[in-house]
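---------- Forwarded message ----------

FYI, see the ATP-binding protein record below. Original note from H. follows.
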Amino acid sequence: MLSQPPASTRVFNRELRNSGESWPNSKITVGLSPAALPKRGSGFDMAIAVAILAAADAVPLATPAGAMFLAELGLDGRLRPVPGVLPAVAAAEGGVSTVVVAAQNVAEAALVPGVRVVGANTLTEVIVWLRGGPLPVLAPVPEPPNGPPSADALAKRLDLADVLGQAEARLAAEICAAGGHNLSLLGPPGAGKTMLAERLPTILPELERAAAIEVTSIHSIAGRLPAGAGLLSMPPFCAPHHTSSMAAIVGGGSGVVRPGAASLAHNGILFLDEAPEFHRDVLDALRQPLESGEVVIARSGAQAVFPARFTLVMAANPCPCANTAGPGKAGCSCSPAARRRYLARISGPLLDRVDVKVRLQPVSRRDMLYDRKFAETSATVARRVIAARERCTARLAGTPWRLNAEVPGTVLRREFPPRPGALASLDRAMELGQVSARGADKIVRVAWSLADLAGQDQPGADQVNLAIGLWLGVAQ
């Protein structure tokens, strides 16, 4: 079965001639197998060019065997990087021994163990190497000018101690970091909601190698991996704008299906600032990945599954006008009905999936000066978070879960119950209709994270009561 090649024959003719090679004087048919699988993109360019040269006896036919060629060809014969190199090489790891990529993709392809990586700047260098010549000499890869700071550089500049006057919110961030719980921040502008969310990655531990490869693969597929970048070891932080479409948040696209912000935040933080300003359908689309940890995008001809196990952090103002009463301020002019309609843009089922809800109050200068003596640095809090996660990992050894937020409710109740009598207040809250069945599971998970932070073997009544207050948003 034959398939249409990604580029026209006339373009390949020009690329080969600009590389110093002659175009075969015969009809050429390119077959891309399997034909039933749709193929898009320019990553096939170099492989097709090498196949044409091998068929024309311009290079030894046996030389390309067992090798993968993955790069785009420019009209001048230069090799250009393509997205998705890491997952492509990892998927073909058992069937290939050598991978030839553009110079900018060398660091990414080299992350796959046991595969020989050959980088080249032009097709001519690849042809010389296939004919028995020396390996190409890579030119230095220039760093993108004025690019966004890396996660490492960002983490060095931000510190949790900068969030002054919000001790309860800092504690909530520590709890969420320890157990992987979702967080909701409600408060007036300037209270520190965005500051707190941006500093949450600074108290998270670095990614383990398997998780780092998974995160790097997702960013590579999305084309978000910087040129020459290696493994992404820091938890990602993704903060899409409130005007983002559903495809931008959960993934999709009219042509090639690409991961969205939910998958780019895998093993990290997805921050929705001004959450009520997002379209309601976009917010509700997050309910499924919050439960399953993955995004399933179905199309008529194919289905794509992207991992999306992230910590959701939502920030919102208490009303549309966002005016806070105080000296020299007129205060809020919104009616109670307007406030309810504004906050109701975040649906109840989505809020039911948020483990910790905190209401931030306006911070005065006196609060900030007083809190300087008690605000802990990110490094101090991160040590407690790492110790709590180690206790959780030891308890969950032999299971597919590593964080309290990942444990299913049935397993939680059967194998990891709190101390006897600790759930009395939770039972009363459920009888009064204050807590749903899903909320009860989340409360127990948060109680376990509190116990891990306190170094206790089981959560007691104090941890359960605090977890109830955090879930209801009334903890003090």
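H. also flagged this: The chain is about 40% helix and 10% strand.
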